[in-house]
Amino acid sequence: MGMTARVLAIDAGNSKTDVAVVAADGAVLATARAGGFRPPAVGVERAMDTLAQAVRQAFASAGVTAADHVSACLANADLPVEEETLAAALHTRAWGSAVEVRNDTFAILRAGVTEPRGVAVVCGAGINCVGMRPDGRTARFPALGRISGDWGGGWGLAEEALWFAARAEDGRGAATSLADALPAHFGLPTMYALIEALHLGSVEETRRHELTPVLFATAAAGDAVARSIVDRLADEVVTMSAIALTRLDLLEEETPVLLGGGVLAARHPQLIDGIRDRLTSRAPKAVPSVVTASPVLGAALLGLDAAGAPAQAHTRLRQHFEP
Fold this sequence. Notes:
- By secondary structure, this protein is an alpha/beta fold.
- It contains 13 helices and ten strands.
- The chain has helices at 39-42, 44-62, 80-93, 105-111, 153-170, 178-185, 191-200, 211-220, 224-247, 262-265, 269-282, 295-306, 311-321, and strands at 4-12, 17-22, 28-34, 66-74, 96-103, 118-123, 127-132, 138-140, 255-260, 286-290.
- The chain has a five-stranded mixed beta sheet, sandwiched between helices. It has a five-stranded mixed beta sheet with strand order 8-7-6-9-10, sandwiched between helices.
- Strand 2 and strand 3 form a beta hairpin.
- The longest helix is centred in the C-terminal third of the chain and has 24 residues, at 224-247.
- The two termini are 25 Å apart.
């Protein structure tokens, strides 16, 4: 075997980075994992150093020194200008002659479809939605949080639950069991105590996301306020999907709508049923499903698409990740 692989696939999220080295026939020569990819927090070069740890390890295991095509699906590549900056930084590393950078949501989309056609909504810490067609057209949102009109994701759900619980406790809002359940999660007696703990830092800000499962458990127990928050997320997922389908002229065709990320992959019945029901009225031809495939599979499939690999290569690659 030569010293060059066909595709170096990179799926880099906020919490972890996965890479795969793939041959022209779709065989996976090596995989490796490294830490999270967070250019906004640490700068582009330090973020690239994290990728480099995984790439070096995978190249060494595969016995190669480079790849023909680098297919990188990266968190925080939200705007075209960010994709260009990250692509330039990848070119500098000289891991492959051709480099394509996409937002990491595209990896989840491609992992769940047999051809590059469909829409994916990812709800993890934040929320995002992308769509693609085989002709190369895509649909996407800036996905930068509230400033770009987003609502949802684990972070947003926790914030909403806290808001309603605080108002329930002091009388400004409707009664909800969230007022007891949220502080109890941290071993605290009241919402006032939790608000104080978050404000003064005795409960770390980063632990807020732990409240999302508490919200879903409270909703499942029948609490009306908690249920209304879950319903709002179902609305948001379907709105993003319908807009993406419309932009790609796929609303009238049977099209996969893939649901990924921790919040959707947990398959909370109220949320998933709510999404299915709303899609039936807003996008009747959409075919929803929850994606559990590894996103690095999607990055590798995008690489094989770009390399014009035959269908058998795609099948072989998929078999490696989905035995």
